[in-house]
Amino acid sequence: MPSIVIAQGGGPTAVINQTLCGAIVAARRHDPSLRILGARHGVRGLTRGDLVDLTALSESDLERLARTPNSGLGSTRDKPDPAYCQTILQALEKLDARGFIYIGGNDTAGTLDLLRQQSTGSCSFVHAPKTIDNDLMENDHVPGFISAAAFVANAFVSMDLDFRAMPGIYVAIVMGRHAGFLSAAAAGWQQAPEDAPHLIYTPERPFSVEQFLNDVDTVYTRVGRCIVSMSEGVQDEAGRPLAEVLAAGAVERDAHGNVQLTGGDLGIEIQKALKQRFPKARARVDTLGYLPRGYLGIIDETDAKEAFEAGAFAAQSAFTGSGSVVLHYDGKRTSPRIVSLDQVAGRTRHMPDSFFTGANAVSDQGRAYFRRLLPPRPDIFTPFV
Amino acid sequence: MPSIVIAQGGGPTAVINQTLCGAIVAARRHDPSLRILGARHGVRGLTRGDLVDLTALSESDLERLARTPNSGLGSTRDKPDPAYCQTILQALEKLDARGFIYIGGNDTAGTLDLLRQQSTGSCSFVHAPKTIDNDLMENDHVPGFISAAAFVANAFVSMDLDFRAMPGIYVAIVMGRHAGFLSAAAAGWQQAPEDAPHLIYTPERPFSVEQFLNDVDTVYTRVGRCIVSMSEGVQDEAGRPLAEVLAAGAVERDAHGNVQLTGGDLGIEIQKALKQRFPKARARVDTLGYLPRGYLGIIDETDAKEAFEAGAFAAQSAFTGSGSVVLHYDGKRTSPRIVSLDQVAGRTRHMPDSFFTGANAVSDQGRAYFRRLLPPRPDIFTPFV
Q1: What is the pLDDT of residues A271-325, one digit of tens each?
Q2: ipTM
Q3: Interchain proximity A76–B166, CB inside 8 Å
Q4: Domains delineated in chain B
Q5: In this complex, is the C-beta atom of A287 within 8 Å of any C-beta atom belonging to chain B?
Q6: What is the rounded distance in angstroms from the CA atom of residue B125 to the CA atom of residue B381?
Q7: Which long-range contacts (CB under 8 A, 24 or more apart) does B189-194 make?
Q8: Among A6, A75, A147, A166, which would you mutate to test the B interface (most chain B Cβ atoms within 10 Å of its Cβ)?
Q9: B133 is catalytic
C-alpha cells in the first residue's frame, strides 16, 4: 500500500508538531487511501523499521498533538553518509513511499538533498522548515522562531523592569550558533530609547570582552542599568566562537561538526569579567539555554498557524516533486512556497547588515522586522523609577 | 495632611504591583482625604524624601500598573540599623503618616518590626507579603509564588518533551536560597510516574554530588532520560551551600548577610560532574536565574487576584494597627489575615517533611499542594517516543 513518511530532525520548537499535523491532514485529504507513517527519531527510525502509523489519528489527538511543543515523533542529529542513505532509500522503497517529508533545519534539508541525489525511485523528498535560529535561506522567517522570539522579548521587558527597580547589569546568553536573530529579537518590543536591551551581541559582528566591558560602562553610566542580549555563538575577530576560545579546545562537536555550546561556560566568563570591572555593581548573567525553544507557556498563534500551513504545503508538494518549503512574505502576507533543496541545504542565513547599527545594536529596520513577527507588546506601566 | 506611605522591598515578583494597587484602592476607599505616597526604592526613598504621590493615580494607570511585573516603585536591600530607623521614623512623622505599608519578604517584615519597636508615634507598620520563595511563616502560600511556580512547571513539561525527543540528562538550577518550594513546584504538573522532574534537590535535604550522580544514573538507565530540578541553595551535610563550597570562600553577602548565589557557578560544576560521569550522554544544565520571578509572559490570574487582595487588606489593617498580612487557606478558600510582625519577621518557612519522599522526590501530599496552587496543566499529547 502506498505511503507518505514523515519525520522530525534536529532541535525542537514550540510548533514543530503543528507542521507534523499539517502534513498528516493534507496527505489524508489528497489521497485517503494512503498510509501515513511517522519515523521515530528521524531517519534513524526508517533504518530500524521503527515507525508509527498516523493514518487513523483522531481529530482530537491531532489537535492535542499540534499544540504540544517539541518533536512528537522524536528527533535525531544523525548525519547520513552514502551507506546510511542507501539503507534509508531501501526502507522507503519497502514502504512504497511516495514522499518523505522531513521537518527540520538546514542539516535536515542537507540529508534530504543527499537522499534525492542518490535516489533512483519515485519517492519525493520534501523539507518542511523549522528552527528557532531563523537561519534558513529563502525564508522570510522560519516556523518556530516567532514563539522563541516571543519568549525572549518577554524576558527582556521583564529584566528591564527588574533592573529599573534595583540598578545593575544583566546579561542573558541566548541560543544562536551562527545567526543572531533570536538574540536580536530581544529588541522587538523596544519603545523608549532607554528600553532594554541596551546592547546586543550576535555571531555576525566580531566580539571582544574588552569592547563589551567598555560598552557596558558607557550604558551603565548613562542609563543607570545595562541589559544585554548575547548570542551563545559570539565570535572573536578571527571568527572563533568565544565559548570555544574560553574552553581552550575542550569542546565537543556533533555529527554535523557543530560545536556543542552550552552557553554556561560563556556566561561564567562574562560574569567574572563583569565582577572584575564593576566590583560594586549588581551584575548577573543568566543563560536562557533550552527554555525559549519549546516552552509550553509561550506558543505564538501566528507561529502555530504558519507551522501547520508549512506542513500541509509540504505534503501537497510531495505529490509533485522534491523541494524545500519556505515562508515567503510579499509585504502583506506570509505564505508557503517551494524552492529546490540545494537552495536551503547546509546553508546558513545570517542577519542582514541592514538589521545592525554598529556592532552592538539593532537598526530601526531590524526592529521593524521583529515587531512585525512578534505579537503586540503587552500594554504595561512605566515604573516610577 | 495625613498620609499612608507604601514601599516595596527585596526581589521582585510578577504580581508585586497588584499588591501596591490593592493598597492604594483600599486606602482611598477608607479615607478619600488621605494622601497616598509611594517611597522610591523602599525605605531608602523615605530617608531621602524621594516620594511619588499616588493619590490621584487614574483607574487606567492603576490597571496597567497592577498587571506590570516587578516593583513599580523600585526596591532596595537596605537593612536599617537603629540610626537608619530613626531617620525613617522622622520622615514618616513629617509626612503625618497614619500607616506605612511595606511590601516584601521576611527581611522587609524584619525592618517593619524594628521600626514598630522604635516608634513612639501613632503610625502603624503593616507588612504585605510577596516572595517567589514562598518561605514566609504563617502563610499557606505567598503572593508571587504561583506565577513563578507556573513558569517552572511549564519549563519542566517542556524539557521533559525535549528529552523524550532526544534522550539525555537535563538539570535546571532554580532560585531558592533556603526553601525549596520553587524547585519542588516543578513536580506540580506530574501525571504519569515517568513524567519530569525525575529528581528534585532542595536546601531542606543534604546534597552530595556523588549521591546526585548515582541518582541520575539510576533514573537515566531506567527511563532513558533524566530531568532534574535543583535549588541554587542546595547544601552539604554540614549545611554549607554547595555554591559557597564550590566558590571556595569567594562569595559575597548582601546587607542582610544573605550569600549572593548566582546559580551559574553551581551549574558549571554540575555540568562538569555530569560530563565526567556520563561522557557519552547529552547532558545540559540551565540556570533559570531571574526568569521565573517576574516574567511578563506568565502571570497567574489567581496569584494576581490574591496579591491585590493582600494589598487591600494591608491598607485596611493599617488603620487599626501593625502586623503582617498572611494568606490563610481554610481547606476551601484562600483569604488574607493579619498576624503580629514577629511571627514573620526574619524567619524562614521550609518545606514540611511531609512534602518529601526520601531526599530527592516530592511526596503525593507535596504534589497535591502545588497542584492546588498551579493553574490546570495544559492538555498535551503524549509523544510517540
Answers
A1: 999 999 999 999 999 989 999 999 999 999 999 999 999 999 999 999 999 999 9
A2: 0.95
A3: yes
A4: 3-132+298-343 (3.40.50.450), 148-293+352-373 (3.40.50.460)
A5: yes
A6: 50
A7: B189/B153, B189/B156, B189/B157, B189/B371, B189/B374, B189/B377, B190/B367, B191/B377, B192/B382, B194/B223
A8: A166
A9: yes
